[in-house]
Each structure stands twice: as structure tokens, then as C-alpha cells.
């Protein structure tokens, strides 16, 4: 038996290093041998920083596993994710089985059918309804911030954006808030979810990830969250809501009947997708935007000059339609997305059977490929002066964009984020009110860099700390 295993290992070693179709792609030697090499390296930090460092060493096409390639050619974004891409989703998206969500459909036809159901919940009329619902939680957010503003008091703005995002998305998913803004702390189920998602940061091979999920000691927190979400979803199914939420669109095809087991798993997956994807990414985006606001007070003045002529309601709220097309506001937000993308690292795809040509390099068929947005946003091949924060590059100095299609913070193509209009509405209106209500600065001796450098990742980026001082504007 030992001789057999030794022979098998030796054959596998020789094949992956000398005869594998990816043998011509540069990368660390040990990465050629085992998919666990990447997982092992991620114990020291998130994938987007590791990949960026490796790309600087090995170039824009990088082998990081036996059948896995990271690419930072700007053209790769459209080739891998674009509307005409022949790439498909790989086994990573099966990790939540038996729950299914819009995010996890690998079959393009099935995905497109489910996306049409979701689309009903993201039309203009629906978004106007969500805007009113979200304003309730934004008012609570600003009341909490007002209580702490002034007196040189340091506020962890990231924490409050997380409370706000989960409360508002809980309402949109289940027609009930998590009440985190009221309690000034995380809901226990959100704590369980955050603990349960830790395994995603290591990018384990899918078979190993699913093995860990069967071990109670490794997945108990995640299963507690699933049970809570299941109970909450069933309660929502029994309710009639006056103002439609996103979930109303998802259950509309049932026409009032009880869901089958498969439909229940699908609704469960979709509800969890609304909470996790909608909350995490919005909170991270708002935090990174505040980081850049505190770093660039001259930009704040320009934003205020743009927002000043626009009328607000008695609470200081902007109507989204009035600010949606402001060039400098959108340019500022895009620059923050470029340098601090909410999904910064691995969004895996599988190459088509005929392979994928990137520049003059052929990536063979049935390989995992991705193009990390964090590195792409810092690419001199995609942007002029990429490390400088220049909002004007998005509306005036467009010659600073070498390859605009490299910018994809919400991904692109058939699998792009369907919640982008909702996220942008939320981000624009929150940032506009924040700018016009408070002066934002870092505590003395701090420039926010160490907190941004400490950002972690569990598929989406997580910024745990961002201490700032808020002063009420006169």
C-alpha cells in the first residue's frame, strides 16, 4: 500500500510540475503541486494582498494552484466576466448546497431564469419603495452619530455602518430589522454568521470546504445562523407586508401556495444572499469612502459645492433622483471602489473547453481563472497614476482611464450584482448626508492607513476598525 501511494504521489508530482497544461504559467513551485498551498499562505493575510504581491513578482499571469490562474491584464476582466464571456462558474459556487441562491447558480439558463424573478424587485418603482424603508434606518444611524459627535470623541465608523447595513437589509429581506442600531451591538445571529464565514477567507478546495461543513465543531456557528434565518424566513412567508420588500418579488411565483423543499432551499439561499452580500459590501464601501473623505478634505469642499444647491427634506435627506448623476460625487465613489473594491480578491470562473486567450497566452479549458479587482485597480496598464485618488478621471480627465472595462466593483456580464442600483442609491444618499452634516477627520497621529491595511476578507472585504472624529457642521 505504501509503495502504491508513493508511486501515485510521485506520478501526480511529475504531472503537475512537468506535463500539466499550465506548466508554462509562472508561479510559486509549491503552488503547482497542491491547491492547499494558497490556503496555507492565507493564514498570514487576505487573498487580495497575497495575489498582488505574487503578481508583482511573477507578472500579470500567475499560477496559484495546480489548475488555478490569477490574471491582471486589464483585458482579462471582460474576457472572464463580461457579457460575451464563455467562462462559467466553478465548483466553488456549490459550497452552500443544498441551499441555492441567485449567486450560486452555475447553469447559465437556470441563472437567467432566476434572475428574471429577482429583476422584478429591482425596478424603479421597487427602488423608490426601498428608499423610503432605508431612510428609517439612516435616520437612526445619524441620530447615533449625532450623540457621539463633538468633544473630540473617537468613533469607529465601520461598526456603525455595519449596524446600519444589517438593519436595513434585514428589513428588505424579511420585513424586520435586526435592531442593531437600537441595541448598539451586533445581533447574536449576525455574530454567528460572521464566525461561520471565517472559512471562506482560506479559499479551501470545494471538496475540502464541504467536508469541513459536515463537522459540527467547524460549522456550528454557521448552522445556528441558518436555523435563525430559516425561522425568520418562514415567519416572513406567513406575513402580508404593506410595503413590498425584495422578498415579496421572490415569493410572487408561488402565488400563495407553500414552497416545495427545493423552493424553500432556494428562498433560504436568496434571503441569506440579500443579507450577506447587501450588508457586508455596503458597510465596507461606506467605510472606505469615509477613509478617503478624511484623507482628502479638499475633495469634501468640492463635493459640498456640488451638493449645496440641491434641496433636502427637513431631516437632511436627499432624494436619490436629485443626486444620482452628480459627476464629482459619482467620481469620488468610483475612485473609492477602484482602490478599495468590496469584492477585492477571488471571484472564480471556469474556462470553456476550448480555453481562454489572454493577450498571447492560452489558458487551457476547465481551469479556474479570476482577475482580482484590488490589483486591477492599482494596475498601470489600466489607469494613469493608479495610486493617486483622482475623482475627475471618471468624468472629466477620462484620458486617465486606459482600459475602462477593467473597473468592475459589482462584476459585469450575466452574473453581475443585481443589487447594484440599490447599493448605489444607498451609498450616494448616505455619503451626501454625511458630508453635509459632519466634518470628518482622523484622530491626531492617525491617518487611517493601518486600519485599511488590516482589512480582512471572507469573499467580500471586511474593515473592522476605522476610528474617526465627527464634528457637527455649523
Automatic annotation (TrEMBL):
Its main location: membrane. One of its GO terms (biological process) is verruculogen biosynthetic process. Its cofactor is heme. It is found in: Membrane. InterPro entries: Cyt_P450 (IPR001128), Cyt_P450_E_grp-I (IPR002401), Cyt_P450_sf (IPR036396), Cytochrome_P450_monoxygenase (IPR050121). Residues 1-19 form the signal peptide. Heme binds at residue 417. It holds the Pfam family p450. Pathway: Secondary metabolite biosynthesis. GO terms for molecular function: heme binding; iron ion binding; monooxygenase activity; oxidoreductase activity, acting on paired donors, with incorporation or reduction of molecular oxygen. One of its GO terms (cellular component) is membrane. Keywords: Heme, Iron, Membrane, Metal-binding, Monooxygenase, Oxidoreductase, Signal, Transmembrane, Transmembrane helix. PANTHER family: CYTOCHROME P450, L-ORNITHINE-N5-MONOOXYGENASE (EUROFUNG). Belongs to the cytochrome P450 family. This is Cytochrome P450 monooxygenase poxM. It comes from Penicillium brasilianum.
